[in-house]
Design goal:
The chain is mostly beta strands and 409 residues long. Helix content is 0%, strand content 48%. It has a single domain, classed as 6 Propeller (Neuraminidase). It has strands at 32-35, 44-50, 56-64, 67-76, 79-80, 84-89, 101-104, 110-117, 124-131, 142-143, 153-161, 164-171, 189-196, 202-212, 219-223, 226-232, 242-248, 251-252, 256-257, 274-278, 281-288, 295-301, 312-315, 319-327, 333-340, 346-353, 363-368, 378-382, 385-392, 398-405. The strands form seven sheets. Strands 2, 3, 4, 5 and 6 form a five-stranded antiparallel beta sheet that branches. Strands 15, 16, 17, 18 and 19 form a five-stranded antiparallel beta sheet that branches. Strands 1-30-29-28 form a four-stranded antiparallel beta sheet, with no helix packed on it.
Length: 409
């Protein structure tokens, strides 16, 4: 049967902080517009990607019979088009922070992934499938990770990579390798990468980092020189700050710190970064609670992620993170995140950071009655509009979608 519980490795962290300033109630020029979600009730785990024409593609999981189905719809002309189904089954592993995806690679080649539960276990593996006809039909599932360890494998990023399909994921196989012969060996989650061909076969695998934070979503952007991945690193001393690595020629670079927060935490905060790139201009947004001071931060690089300028704080006390990020044509960054609402619950907020670092007002996009995040809101560009998708557990609980004009932030 489908599992809808959080992974045992996910450590829920509730930051009992007071609200850090009031967001704008909304100037006359700023408006949020509801968009009809094309799926059914109780849908969740929404994720945005972009097709080769720049149109957003929204995927999600939706109950079907005794199990679930992975579905998607393309956004064009101000609305979502027909709903398509990739696959369905009763062995899906569902987790609020670890979402499946549908990723166009070329006009004809699309890739998708989801999580499959190991029977009679809390472990799960990554299943991938490829479409050769633009998402209309899909190949038989292939397991992305090449091990059978009863461990967690997930938080996948699919992307176009030198004419092939790239896949990054967090891999927990080393956590299943404890031995009394090596009781002091540091075991943890690794960040791994693979290439798949147009048929969906895995043709190469590699390890990007042997020790990373266990369940903070990595995020990838394409620069003029190739892919750059941002993720929450982990040191033997349990410092879990954000770093980036570039793919250079035939190997991944050494890790470059985005900032030196020095967040010491003995457990995963389930709060990954977001990265966006235009040529060699890169921005990274993330959450930290170093020194018991929750903050949402943003840092920029103008040399392809080789160095980063000092970080700017987007929000402080009361912020929960789960960030989204876009780079605008004028160099401004748009950041979304969850923050504590003045009257209880949480607000989904947005803020613009100019190319010069100037901060716009904090705007409220939506409200949730939950006391802490139960999803990772998705942010994407659609022409002049900016789309947001998130899962509400309020009545009725399902995926919700909206748009706003970033120029009015």
């Amino acid at each position: 049967m489908t599992v809808r519980l959080s992974s045992a490795a996910l450590v829920a962290i509730v930051l009992a902080a007071c609200s850090g300033g009031e967001p704008s109630s909304g100037a006359d020029e700023f408006r949020v517009y509801t968009i009809a979600f094309p799926g059914g009730a109780d849908s969740g785990q929404a994720r945005f990607s972009v097709d080769v024409d720049g149109a957003p593609v929204l995927s999600w999981l939706e109950p079907e019979g005794e199990g679930d189905a992975l579905r998607y719809a393309r956004f064009a002309g101000g609305a979502f088009g027909p709903v398509q189904t990739v696959t369905s089954g009763t062995d899906f592993f569902l987790n609020w922070a670890d979402t499946p995806s549908v990723q166009p690679i070329t006009p004809q080649i699309w890739a998708a992934h989801w999580l499959k539960l190991v029977p009679e276990s809390s472990a799960y593996h990554v299943a991938t499938s490829v479409s050769a006809d633009g998402g209309r039909s899909w190949s038989a599932a292939v397991q992305l990770n090449d091990d059978s360890a009863e461990a967690e494998h997930g938080f996948v990023q699919l992307f176009k990579w030198d004419g092939a399909i790239g896949a990054l994921w967090l891999d927990g196989r080393q956590l299943a390798e404890f031995s009394f012969d090596e009781p002091n060996k540091l075991l943890g989650t690794s960040l791994r990468v693979a290439r798949l061909d147009a048929s969906g076969a895995v043709i190469a695998r590699d390890v990007v980092d042997e020790l990373v934070c266990d369940c903070c979503q990595p995020h990838l952007a394409m620069t003029s020189a190739g892919p750059v991945v941002a993720y929450r690193d982990r040191t033997p001393e349990e410092i879990r700050d954000i770093v980036v690595r570039r793919y250079e020629g035939a190997a991944w670079s050494d890790a470059v710190p985005v900032a030196h927060d020095h967040w010491n935490i003995e457990g995963c905060p389930v709060n990954g970064p977001a990265i966006a790139a235009t040529a060699d201009e890169i921005a990274v947004a993330w959450f930290t609670a170093a020194g018991d001071m929750p903050r949402v931060r943003l840092a920029r690089s103008r040399d392809g992620a080789r160095t980063f300028a000092p970080a700017v704080d987007i929000d402080g006390a009361g912020s929960f993170g789960q960030v989204g990020l876009l780079l605008e044509h004028d160099g401004a960054a748009v950041v979304t995140w969850w923050r504590r609402a003045a009257g209880g619950g949480m607000d989904l907020a947005a803020r613009k950071v100019g190319a010069d670092g100037a901060l716009g007002e904090i705007r409220v996009l939506a409200h949730s009655s939950e006391g802490q995040p139960v999803d990772v809101p998705q942010l994407i560009a659609a022409g002049d509009a900016r789309l947001v998708a998130w899962t509400s557990v309020d009545e009725p609980g399902t995926v919700h979608t909206l748009s706003f004009d970033a120029g009015a932030l």
